[in-house]
Structures are given as structure tokens and as C-alpha cells.
Amino acid sequence: MNPIRTTLAGAALLTLAACASTEPAAPADPPPPAASPEVAAMYGAMDDNGHHIPAVDPNLLTGDKARRVVDYWTDERPGTIIVDPHARYLYQVQRGNKAMRYTVAVGAAGYGFTGEAHIPYQRDWPSWKPTDNMVATQPELYGPVEAGLEGGPDNPMGARALYLHNSGGDTFYRIHGTMDPASIGRSDTAGCIRLFNQDIIHLAEQTGSMTKVIVLSEAESGKGTVPPRQPLPQPAMMAAS
Description:
Blueprint: H1 3-20, H2 37-42, E1 46-48, E2 51-53, E3 68-71, E4 81-84, E5 89-94, E6 98-103, E7 105-106, E8 115-124, H3 132-137, H4 139-142, E9 160-166, E10 169-176, E11 193-194, H5 197-205, E12 211-215
Parallel strand pairs: 4-12, 10-11
Antiparallel strand pairs: 1-2, 3-6, 4-5, 5-6, 7-11, 8-9, 8-12, 9-10
Family: Belongs to the YkuD family.
Pathway: Cell wall biogenesis; peptidoglycan biosynthesis
Protein name: Lipoprotein-anchoring transpeptidase ErfK/SrfK
């Protein structure tokens, strides 16, 4: 487009706008809060087993990131955990075609297991040790903590960890908290399935020993979110990091 013509057209529009009204512009409405007071209270600061958990920044709770009860159709028993790593959600089945839905973060290990498992035990504020592969591929990051870390706010496992086993024993697949709340809803390089610390505490309180866990494959993503015999929705992937 001719730049002179563009400039003249812009000037004409400004002139027309100036002539349209001489009344002062109405004050802009204040921006809506990033999260409702109810949601902000769910993710407020808390103390747990001698550790302080900071409040989640309300700006990280926009959209559908806060836990909530949703419609969910499945024949699985109430209490069953269904992980959809490709949609970045975890569901705990409730009665009446409902489930409590949590937003999760998914690392590379989070895509490494599909199928059924169970939770023989969980740990509060678990310790953590990087794998040999993590140390070998990113020695500058994991070398200083090669010996492992005790549980605490700076531990990547967060406030709780649910350990998944199947007929072959430990799957090395974990559902756990995080030291990085900004990662929730995203996909990055490390970890399995991570929740806000407030959410993993809430989930752990509702989860008994030997709870069944189902991890969906990419082809199954969205299963349960529509009534039976309806086509699965296209995966609604959240922003990746």
C-alpha cells in the first residue's frame, strides 16, 4: 500500500473522530479480577506439616485452571483417578456423572505411561533425586542436587506425591505437587504429572490406598468429557512452554 495514502487516510480518520464528539470520554471500567474471591480463597497461603505454601498468584488461575466439578461420563467407580495428559487435566470420578477436575502440568515422563495402575501409598513432602539421565543430559542444572533433596517448598515433588504401581511393580510414574505454580497447564521437559500444591493436598485427602488410576493415551484424550457414543472432542491443548 502507498505509504503517503496510508498516512493521509489515518489523518482523515483522526479528524473525523475529533469532530464526532467534544464530550469527555467516559472512564474505562476497571479490569475484572483475575480470579473470583472464592477461587482465590481455595488457593490461598497455607501451612502444612511445618512448611509454608504461598498463595497462588491469581493471574495463574484464569480460565479453567482452578479445580472444579464438571460433567464426566464413565463406568469407573467413584474415587478413580483418570489422567488425560494430552488435555492437561486430571479427573477424580464422583457419583452422578461428575468428576472433580484439576489442571496439571506434564513433563516428558508424563507421556511415558498409559493404561491402568493403582496407588499403594502416598507421601507428604517427599524427597527427590534426579535420575542419572537428567544429570547426564543437564549436568549444570541437576549436578548440584545429584545426591537428592529433602522434602520442602524448594523440592520439585511439592507437598504430596502419589506413587503408581501396576502388575509389574513401580511404574516410576508420579502424581505430585510442584515448586513452580506457573508451570501448571503447560508442558515442559521434566517431571510426571504436577498440580498446584493446594490441589495435590486436596486430591491426596480424597485418595485412599489402592485407588485405581487410568492414564489415557493420546487417542483417548477427551474420553469421559462427552456422553457415551458421542465423538471425542479435539484435544484442547493449553499453551506449551
